[in-house]
Amino acid sequence: MKVLIIGGTGQLGSQIYNILKTGASELGSISRIYSLAEIISVGADDLNIIDLNSVREYISKIKPNVIINSAAYTNVDGCEENYDLAFKVNSLGARNVAIGCEDIGAKLIHISTDYVFEGKGVEPYKESDIPCPISAYGKTKFLGEEYVKSFSSRYFIVRTAWLYGYNGKNFVKTILSVAKYKGYLEVVDDQRGNPTNAEDLAYHILKLALTEEYGIYHCTGTGECSWYDFACKIVECAGIDCIVKAIKSDKLTRTAKRPAYSSLDNMMLRCSVGDKMRQWEDALKVFVDKIKM
Questions:
Q1: Could you list the active site residues?
Q2: CA distances (Å), 258 to each of 81, 115, 128, 142, in order?
Q3: Which end of the chain has fewer CB atoms within 10 angstroms, the N or the C?
Q4: What CATH topology corresponds to 2-170+196-222+264-278?
């Protein structure tokens, strides 16, 4: 078995790689099938996903059984300001990888986002709900999903949200840094979603990869909160003396619109391989304790 991780230097890609190499995660051991697998992890410097010919040649050369595409342009405001780049990476990049997968009959796991939804709901979005993105990031990621469905016959589209991991920058690390050095934070309380530990997401992706239960999946931490709630819990877990003030989104100067409510329901996980995603508070505490060590 051969597994190719595209976007391997990012938060999720690096977490998947680490779990594959150690054979275990915080949620438990992974299948022994992976113990004999060849793992190939590539970043943007190794593989340019916006070049179709390069992608097809690379995939045809190494012939992986499973490809996990976690590469994306995730700067939400940056996508608004540079739509062409967002389209190339999030849409055409997804198409190119899907075509490369289909060339050799490989399984494709493509990572997407809660931002494909408009955010006007009051209950967690299910996989059957119709996307209606309101930002360039959401629109290009949704088009990427459509390309995957059009060009690959063996795909898992996995939507996640509010992701944080041990490698790279994220909301949790930013809050910890600012709280420690300034002792004061202002965080919006009118956007709600699901904080997701990359460890939990990686574990479930690797479970899905061994099945043929193709389709669209939501995979986020259990429970929901606002960014303000999230920040308060981060500060509490770290034991930092910091004042956290709730503000409204219109107080911030941002280029892109954000969905006010983008909580996801992991219905497909429950109905297939099982949903072992941790409560977001529990997963966060483990994460903060580890990075404090």
A1: 137
A2: 15, 8, 21, 15
A3: C
A4: Rossmann fold (3.40.50)
